[in-house]
Amino acid sequence: MKTTIKEAKNHIGQEVTIGAWLHNKRSSGKIAFLQLRDGTGFMQGVVVKSEVDEDTFATAKNITQESSLYVTGTITEDNRSDLGYEMQVKSIDIIQEAHDYPITPKNHGTEFLMDHRHLWLRSKKQHAVMKIRNEIIRATYEFFHETGFVKIDPPILTASAPEGTSELFHTKYFDEDAFLSQSGQLYLEAAAMAYGKVFSFGPTFRAEKSKTRRHLIEFWMIEGEMAFYEHADSLEVQEQYVTHVVQSVLKNCELELKILDRDTSKLEKVKTPFPRITYDDAIEYLKEQGFDDIEWGEDFGAPHETAIANHYDLPVFITNYPTKIKPFYMQPNPENEDTVLCADLIAPEGYGEIIGGSERINDLDLLEERIEEHQLDRESYNYYLDLRRYGSVPHSGFGLGLERTVAWISGVEHVRETAPFPRLLNRLYP
Ligand code: 4AD
Ligand code: MG
After folding, report:
1. Confidence band (pLDDT; 50, 70, 90) for 166?
2. What digits encode the pLDDT tens for the residues 305-359?
3. Largest interatomic CA distance in the chain
4. Distance between CA 184 and CA 171 in Å, rounded?
5. Ion ligand 2 — residues with CB < 5 Å
6. How close is the Cα of 212 to the center of ligand 1, in Å?
7. Strands, E, within 13-67: which ranges?
8. DSSP string, 321-334
9. Which residues of the chain are in CATH 3.30.930.10 domains?
10. Quick one: which atom of ligand 1 is closest to the CA of 221?
11. Least crowded by CB within 10 Å, which of 266, 336, 381, 390?
């Protein structure tokens, strides 16, 4: 019977065949241990010389790394392994013999691994990270669908810039100029006026010349937009969503977190409500912590965010940033008009901002004023202004960066390991 490594747990004591690749092996004169992988997981195959024919043992001893195989044998329990079972191999059919696989078990430099990303994805660590990414995606759809959101897919080719004009990828749209989407927000606002609560999940492009462990040129963003929600209501959705995602990974990716050596005690603490601190208080706190250089009105850098995050066990919302360092569409804070009704959610353990969100301006005159101040091309925002002409309501929304969230939950240092084929400054290959 044909099965997979994952499904083999339902076949203890039975003889099965699994299509697999040889990940690694160890052998002595009498026994060979094959580390097999098949996409669903990693499993040990044990080949005992005295129990197989001569050819099979010779094959087992000589198979090369990443050769593709059909392996047949009996599944037996094995409490020493993370998986809980292994295969007593009876026969091996080689499908294709691989020679000189570039990624050997020794250590390789990051650039080398990135050049071989198409093969690096096969490694145990990368496999675990992608499985966690997959679980976060699954839990995202589950959360939004269970809480009454409608999925809306905003366009990727756009004529307007939601997050400022300096980080746009230009392209030609026949005779017109177009930009790759930086955020679906403006279109989601239109959709929220049609469907109430909406979300999107799609690729986002930022032509930002940042080379940090948190920046990708292309990343995936989950955005929520809710009609009749004020900013405080939106924060509640955000903390519930993030909690749901973390708890789902803890529940469904136990093995992957173990492979990654993730300290799960920190993730277990993630429960609503998350702490909130205003930008003003954050500035005070940073000054107390010895950041003498930071002045009111400046944006926070990674060290500032980390210092604030370290003060808490949970993700923390920094609220009410100065108007002048945020995009044009944010609703002024009625208690201090120099600030806006917004929040960034900062992940624990130095992973930085994972969500940006705000209440949106719903007054037509004010929005027109802001579009002018920001020197945006009014024509291309006409549809956006229509939303304030025809039944404008208070509304709020947010965007969560998938890769930064994967990095935090998996505990990997750099976002480049959280996207299957990351687009980075100076990297478009493979
Ligand atoms: O804070 P940002 O720029 O917010 C927006 O785009 C809003 N329009 C979202 C909304 O309100 N609907 O981006 C949101 C999140 C960030 O918090 C971060 O997690 C992620 O997107 N992000 C990046 N991730 C990887 N690489 C980059 N260069 C990123 N830029 C933003
Ligand atoms: Mg932001």
Report:
1. confident
2. 999 999 999 999 999 999 999 999 999 999 999 999 999 999 999 999 999 999 9
3. 85
4. 18
5. 356
6. 15
7. 15-27, 31-37, 42-48
8. -BGGGS-TTBPEET
9. 118-417
10. 21
11. 390
- Alpha-carbon distance of 413 to 200, in angstroms, equals 27
- Ligand 1 centre distance from Cα of residue 401 (Å): 6
Residues 115-146: b if buried by 16+ CB within 10 A, e if exposed: bbbeebebbbebbbbbbbbebbbebbeebbee
User: What is the position in ligand 1's atom list of the atom closest to the CA of 344?
Assistant: 17
- Summarised one tens digit per residue, pLDDT across range 227-282 is 999 999 999 999 999 999 999 999 999 999 999 999 999 999 999 999 999 999 99
CA 414 – ligand 2 centroid, Å? 18
Query: What is the enclosing helix (H) or strand (E) of 316?
Result: strand 316-319
| pLDDT tens track for 106-138 | 899 999 999 999 999 999 999 999 999 999 999
Task: Answer whether 397's CB lies under 8 Å from 234's CB.
Answer: yes
125 backbone dihedrals φ, ψ, rounded to 5°: -70, -45
Query: 0.85 exceeded by the pTM?
Result: yes
205 ligand 1 Cβ < 6 A: no
**Does the C-beta of 354 come closer than 6 Å to ligand 1?**
yes
Give CA–CA dist 84/32, Å, rounded.
Answer: 19
Q: Three-state SS for 114?
A: helix
For 107, other C-beta atoms within 10 Å of its C-beta total: 7
Which pLDDT belongs to residue 159?
A: 87
Residue 200: its H or E element: strand 197-205
| CATH 2.40.50.140 residue ranges for the chain | 5-96
- Domain 118-417, CATH among 3.40.50.620, 3.30.930.10, 3.30.450.40, 1.10.3210.10: 3.30.930.10
Q: 5-96: which CATH topology?
A: OB fold (Dihydrolipoamide Acetyltransferase, E2P) (2.40.50)
Tokens of 271: 């429960």
The CB of 167 under 6 Å from ligand 1? The reply is: no
Assigned token pair, 182: 């930086």
What is the rounded distance in angstroms from the CA atom of residue 388 to the CA atom of residue 386?
5
Q: How far is CA 406 from CA 130, 183, 414, in A?
A: 9, 19, 10
